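Reviewers of the previous submission asked for a worked example of the structure-prediction workflow described in the proposal, so we include one complete record here. The input consisted solely of the amino acid sequence. No template or homolog information was supplied to the procedure at any stage.
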Amino acid sequence: MPSWFVEQGNLTKDQVLDAARKAAEQARERICRDPKRVLLLPPDITRAHSGAGMITEELYKIFSKSAEVYVIPTLGQHLPHTPEQNKWMFGSIPEERILKHDWRNGSTLIGEVPAEFVKEVSKGKADWSIPVALNTPLVKEKWDLVINVGHVVPHEVLGFANHNKNYFIGLGGKPTICASHMMAACCGIENNLGNLITPLRKCYNKAEEDFLGFLPDCFIEVTMAYDSEGRLGHTGVYVGDDVDVYLDAAKVSREQNITIVPPLKKVVAVMQGDEFYSTWVANKAIYRTRMAMADGGELLVIAPGLKRFGEQADVDELIRKFGYSGTENVMKLWKQEPILQDLTHGTAHLIHGSSEGRFKITYAPGHISKEDMESVCFGYADLEETLKRYNPETMKNGFNVMPDGEEVYFISTPSAGLWSTKEKLENREF
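From that input alone, the workflow returned the following structure tokens.
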């Protein structure tokens, strides 16, 4: 089925909000004329730049006039927002209406994707079932309308973010998140990035079809791109209730958000201090540039907000203990170490965050010591000195030549795209 409607172009904030209002009208017409309980599912703060917060706030204003409305940021295993972060992202939505997803203890098992299917779509790379354990209020409470809001952009696990990722990762329980991330890691991060339908996406599409038919839901998905002056803005709003709305948006994202470059010897990327506090999320700078990095090159990540490695204490401990030490070593340890077998999403993260020795990864962190950074197999650069040399306020996206002649490729928002050589995009297993 085609999307309900699509708005495209260089969209202003008002046009995006107009599309949100139209989506609300369509949801009333197609799903529930007079909903009394509405659930809004936006992304978490690491995708705040997408404008999903203001869209969610607008939907809350519309439906709260006549309905009980709740919001659950689709955190996955990320830390819950503080009240201050909720206010920054969601504006006037009351704090008591914003629920916290508990990926460890707040999910209900409703089915599984069979091991045979996983093995088939992964070409034998993974051979285990994927339990479908989702947020308990989502699946146990009665909702008249569920609206997903999100940003479709290249993603290291699913090819592109959003759509039913909101459910199976964003509101997934530990069994789902762990089995999913390990499957995607075994398929290979560079096989996943920027692919419309990855092996894991096939599993999620099957799970949605088999188990989520009871949800009265729809999707509001946005695409974004840089304009000629280097500003990130909205290029589309896609609204619908099935996989076609995802495909419509992902095809546009594939055209707008994948930048073909020659092999890059030096990349400087910025992970914004008000969004990225751990390498768990700041490593998006690695994921989105790894297909562009030349052998022997260096990725320098400016991360002023960086305070920790993992989002939770046990995952932070896991990263500190084993480090981003490469697929071969991590897979060997996985067979021996109980913590890696228990927290397999963390095991997958260690694989994703390694350059496999192909290029150097250096962090300029705000709150992590040189000793700690180097202990997890990353290089360290002093933040103040790095900002003096590579000032994000004066550098432009793309190639820059420094006063001493050094050529660097600058990326102001790595999480908004994917950078790759033509060869790496064209030579993939899936």
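The two ends are 25 Å apart (CA to CA). We consider this example representative of the routine output the project will generate in years two and three.
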